[in-house]
Amino acid sequence: MPMSTTLEACLRSKGARYEIVHHPYSHSSVETAAAAHVPGDRLAKTVLLEDEQGYVAAVLPSTYAVRLSELWAKTGRRLTLARETDLRELFKDCEVGALPPVCTAYGMKTYLDESLAQQPDVYFEAGDHEELVHMGAEQFLSLMGDAERARFAHRIQRLAI
Length: 161
Fold this sequence. Notes:
Elements: H1 5-13, E1 19-22, H2 29-36, E2 43-51, E3 54-61, E4 64-66, H3 68-75, E5 80-81, H4 84-90, E6 109-113, H5 114-117, E7 121-125, E8 131-136, H6 137-143, E9 148-150, E10 153-155
Parallel strand pairs: 2-7, 3-6, 6-9
Antiparallel strand pairs: 1-8, 2-3, 2-5, 4-10, 7-8
């Protein structure tokens, strides 16, 4: 599957400068970072959350996890992870698990974790499991201009084996 048409239109409308990075098929954001040989802190992942009011997207580094209590405090909503069947319906031009971060282009309130704003450049899913979009931080923050910035994620601790 090529780049999401919604993402492509968003990039074009914002005049974004970017490059496409091809990588072997991967199943998770941690696997994607390894397959593409990019730092996990610079790979943005998109987590879709929901409640009775609708959907919200959280965008954070692949090496982090959403701290729901922080988003609950920020939004005043008791958000939970969205179901996979919902992802298929909402992001028809994307493969499940390969959501680009520009969820405002899909009509969704989006939160961007501040830790991504500290990176010199950012990578993110193009809508499939074999391509990433790579751009400088300034371009990424401009692209995510409609997202609300907040601190709601924490670094995932890896166990030594």
